[in-house]
Amino acid sequence: MTALAPLSLSPILLLALAEGHADFGGGEMDAIIIVPWILWSLVFGMTAFVLWSREWPLLRSLAGSALAGIVALLIGGLILAMTGSLGFGGM
């Protein structure tokens, strides 16, 4: 349950952003926030299940899963930045 909580909140966050209930100051671009949120929550959920299957304690597995999600976002951001600077993105 704990591993899938962030992923289950994704539709609620997207709906709140789309209807204007949540506002981060970016206008329609606020919906882009949902992409890293979903990537992080998918990595978090997968690593939490792997760590729980290896019988890690709850707090340690959640902290490790959160760290793995942050690392995945950093790697994804670096890949996007590198492909954009190399001109693969439509130049």
Overview of the molecule:
With 91 residues, the protein is mainly alpha-helical. The protein has a domain at 30-81. The chain has 4 helices and no strands. The radius of gyration is 16 Å and the shape is flat.
What keywords describe this structure?
69% helix; 91 residues; mainly alpha
Describe the structure concisely for a colleague.
The chain has 91 residues and is mostly helical. The protein has helices at 5-8, 10-19, 34-53, 58-86. The model has no long low-confidence stretch (mean pLDDT 84).
First-last Cα distance: 44 Å
Low-confidence stretches: none
Strand content: under 5%
Instruction: Describe the global form.
Output: flat
The number of distinct helices, counting runs of at least 4 residues, comes to 4
SSE sequence, one letter per element: HHHH
Specify the biggest β-sheet: none
The value of Rg in angstroms is 16 Å
The helix content is: 55-70%
Mean pLDDT level: 84
Overall strand count: 0
Category by helix and strand content: mainly alpha
List the helices and strands and how they pair.
Blueprint: H1 5-8, H2 10-19, H3 34-53, H4 58-86
